[in-house]
Amino acid sequence: MTSPPITLLFLGSGDAFGSGGRFNTCFCVTTPKTRFLIDCGASSLVAMKQHSIPVESIDCVLLSHYHGDHFAGLPFLLIEAKVTNRQKPLTIAGPGPVQEKTAAFLETLFPGLSLGQLELPLKFVSLPDEEECQVGPLLVTAFPVVHSPATLPHALRIEMEEKTIAYSGDTEWTDELIKAAQGSDLFICECFAYQEKVKSHLDYQTLLGKKDLLQTRKLILTHMGPEMLASLREIQLDYASDGQKIVI
pLDDT tens digit string along 152-200? Predict the structure, then answer.
């Protein structure tokens, strides 16, 4: 029997600086049973509206780490949910104290506004390291990676309906990526630079040399900086663009 189709839409495939005019990181996954976001960068709500994706349709937000280009769109999404009178529960899952991180950032962006004042049916799930965690219909495993430690950086492995999507988050090379990607149907991997070595990020030359270790059915690059964007004609691997849709 053929597995039901799962689609992934790259709402944002850019880096922290919007290089190439791309939106910050945000991927929307739609399955027959659920719809969820992987990361929610600062520009995510704008991108959702460009693609006519209502906040009401999102069941869950999975966060890889707490840098603004992956996390700062969440307060805007929550306020949109408030003003549109969302009634459906929303789950927010991420590494470490995800509820406290969300509350603190909401207060930073909108002083005087607390999670309680939003009056939304929210559920927060703290993802443990390297342990499968049930998040609604999703089975999520978070793997610690090498990025700014204060952001609690993790790669994510998401299993659903006989399919697996893996995502590197932001990181330099670590063998944890092999664990996250192994046997996945799709592995989305950050690739900030082409050959320049940038601390806490991957470059194309390193990834090209390691790609066979990942054992994924499809590898696609994202989070590309200026050097990488200028070198796209030279690369042999698939790369993401804003608005691109993949059927898994």
Answer: 999 999 999 999 999 999 999 999 999 999 999 999 999 999 999 999 9
Whether residue 185 contacts residue 217, with contact meaning beta carbons closer than 8 Å, is answered with yes
> Helices 74-83 and 98-109: crossing angle, nearest 10°?
80
Instruction: Using alpha carbons, select from 76, 52, 66 the residue that is nearest to residue 16.
Output: 66
pTM: 0.97
Which tokens belong to 172?
A: 């330099």
Give yes or no for a contact between 136 and 156, defined as CB atoms under 8 angstroms apart: no
- Tens digits of residue pLDDT in 85-109: 999 999 999 999 999 999 999 999 9
Give the HSE-up count for residue 25: Cα atoms under 13 Å, Cβ half-sphere: 30
- SS3 percent helix, strand, coil of the chain, rounded to 5, is 30, 30, 45
Q: DSSP assignment of 132-176, as one string?
A: -EEETTEEEEEEE-BS-GGG--EEEEEEETTEEEEE--S-B--TH
Give me Rg for the CA atoms of the chain: 17
